[in-house]
Amino acid sequence: MKPEKQVRDVQLPESIVVSELANRMAERTPDVIKSLMRMGMMVTANQAIDADTAEIVIEEFGHKAVRVSDSDVEQVIDMVEDKAEDLQSRPPVITIMGHVDHGKTSTLDAIRNANVVSGEAGGITQHIGAYQVKAKNGAILTFLDTPGHAAFTSMRARGAQVTDIVVLVVAADDAVMPQTVEAINHAKAAKVPMIVAINKIDKPAANSQKVRTDLLQHEVVVEEMGGDVQTVEISAKTGQGLDQLLEAIALQAEILELKANPDRPALGAVIEAQLDVGRGPVATVLVQNGTLKRGDIFVVGEQWGKVRALINDKGDRINEAGPSVPVEVLGLNGTPEAGDVLNVVETEAQAREIAEFRIQQSKDKRAAAGAAITLDQLMAKAKADQSVAELPVLIKADVQGSAEAIVQALEKIGNDEVRVRVLHYGVGAITESDVGLAEASGAPVIGFNVRANGPARASANQKGVEIRYYSIIYDLVDDIKAAASGLLSAEVREHFIGYAEIREVFRVSGIGNVAGCLVTEGVARRSAGVRLLRDNVVIHEGTLKTLKRFKDEVKEVQSGQECGMAFENYDDIRKGDVIEIFEREEVQRKL
Ligand code: GDP
Ligand code: MG
Question: What pTM value is reported for the model?
């Protein structure tokens, strides 16, 4: 007598690979393929089929389909918390940041050349975008060779927090500069401790004290000023202080008590990846937990693969890589992106299924990019999370004074339940780096009398980051206050209806300066408000005195057409300036 067939509950996501479906039903794959053939579908074991089809197959085999939400496919990724007794200490991972030309690359090079973990004579050729060095006390340190806060934050935006410690390089002859401030804010947003390397102290003009006092203004209180941020004076040129810098890092790492469990499936992050002509897709991965071994099957972002070879920072082939070890991974089916997270899974079918799910998901996300994170959604989410709601924002303004006034006003908003956190503020156009930081923290970008430049606008659209423009501080504070109390009306109070570029400026007697313009977007309307933008900064706001098409005064000029415009009571217009045309709308606010 045949044993009675066991009826199984089969977890069924939106799409499933045939072999995995067979696996979940505990049936043979060829039988499943046959069943599909009878339905007129010619598929291979590795192909994915949709849930409706799979459900018919499941019923045919006498099992029960249990529809699961899409993201459940990700559940095979081992998310088990490590037990305390399984944890061992791991080396710290360090990123160097700072203002351009303050010596990031020189410092990385100097550390590497003096301390690479290997006895090789002569210069070491570094193979991958990270390396490990040994400090004098024997501590191993992992350095990421991706200077630049944009890279740092874009990785964070993709879900990879790889850095444990930021070394902020500040040139002693130049002190704190705009990108120093940006770096500080990026590090703070990521809640990563900082060590300040005061570089170029070999130079006669070096003034370390100025660096320390400058930093104070940005709420970085160094040890010498009674704070807890270590500083080390170095010269990347002479090598002075580099050992102390490594010691300081090792000390900071001890305080952090960094631990990982080497005995579990690996979890890592892609530091860089490229398509190599000879070797196919290659990714440099920093192992963050577990041990990555040859033959492991993994999913990484929207790609998957099976580890064919692992190559370390010295170019040697190795069999496995443990926590904090950077390795080059071969055996990918496609090229992932920097910041993608790598997870080892059990079967190829799982890896493929997760990769396919993510591809679909990112398609959906792009499709929905128009529906950006808005202030209200942000607050709704914060409330749903039941935590103290924090509304992160990023501020760019036309002048330092406004930026500071806005920050002060915003910091006063809030109570026990909500508060506004300014991630970064600065002067000038909204850039891609701003958008990146905003995305990583789920924050909107507020432009006060400044606009986003082209790349930033494109990036914001793609990533779904909200950019809001204001020209009146009161309005700005009002809106943020409303958002913070969950009362923001979704209506826009001001919308842009067009943009025109000034091609030529004519002097017309009796009128003054007239701009010969091309309407590049939308429409120009005589009755609308106008702003004059120079390098994405608002320099004048007012109304039009005249809008001419050829010789005639007109009400409206469409995109693609040329026209003449002159401002009421304002004459300083220049070739290359942009005119923004907007309309205001009164919106009744609900309380
Ligand atoms: P990065 O833009 O921060 O990566 O800066 P670089 O490492 O490229 O350095 C910028 C310039 O400063 C180069 O010309 C370096 O040679 C020089 N430089 C870097 N560190 C030092 C230093 O400690 N002393 C002196 N005198 N020059 C340095
Ligand atoms: Mg450099």
Answer: 0.61
